[in-house]
Amino acid sequence: MNTAAIATAPDPTTASHAPLVSLRGVSKTFSNGTVALQNMSLDIGEREFVSLLGPSGCGKSTALRIIAGLGDTTSGTITWPGVRDDTTAKSRHEIGFVFQEPTLMPWATVFNNVWLPLRLRGVSRSAARGDVMEALGMVGLEKFADSYPRELSGGMKMRVSIARALITRPKLLLMDEPFAALDEITRFKLNNDLLHLWEKFGWTVIFVTHSVFESVYLSSRIVVMASRPGRVIDELAIDAPYPREEEFRTSSIYNEYCRKTSDALHAAMEGSEHR
Questions:
Q1: 208: phi > 0 → left, psi -120 to 50 → alpha, else beta; which?
Q2: E-state strands within the chain
Q3: 186-216 pLDDT per residue, tens
Q4: For residues 67 and 79, what is the distance between their CA atoms, to the nearest angstrom?
Q5: pLDDT of residue 116
Q6: Which residue ranges make up each domain of the chain?
Q7: CATH 3.40.50.300: does it fit domain 44-71+85-94+172-275?
Q8: pTM for this predicted structure
């Protein structure tokens, strides 16, 4: 990676949000007849931090996988206005994906786990070394390059997973409830670390979560989804300035945004139940 180039990325909190990816009328019906998404339309702006918030089964993860190219739509379109060469291959190469579980290879060292995406592109271990160590440095694990997953805590494993997603220098980082299984203290710490990285490097982030509190703390915008069938019900802009530190969690504006978001989520769930 070119550290100098990355370090001068535009400020995500002040940059204009030109669309990076747009979903129009996207629907997904699985072979068993389950309607996961119906007529979902959504624009994701460059350098936004957008959370998809909703109950289990509302299609959040399905939408994320479709954006990543890991699944097809039944109908509707996905376009990439923010990618100059608007091709599926190029778009997918500019995406990093962090799953709910770290999905690390237990027999491989931390270094080799992070190297994997470059290895699959034919980059040798020696040629990738600088990029791997820089990615590990981003998440504070450069001293654990030779460790194995069994020697790491849950939070450290998730950091390795994030480093692996960042190794290809993605424009878009997709995160599917990455901190859901962690204890509260570790989750708060990783929330803070993720925001610092996002502010520094100017990615676009789409973050799936069930947590109202997490979505408000992290996001510039929250997209509230309802299930049966999965669709966008509401959107809320979180206008609190960045950087957001611990004092934001106890502020009146944070509590007010949490209340509004919780109300929107409950309205979405009630709307689903009454369909």
A1: beta
A2: 19-29, 35-45, 49-53, 75-79, 95-98, 172-176, 204-209, 221-226, 231-237
A3: 999 999 999 999 998 889 999 999 999 999 9
A4: 10
A5: 95
A6: 44-71+85-94+172-275, 110-169
A7: yes
A8: 0.88
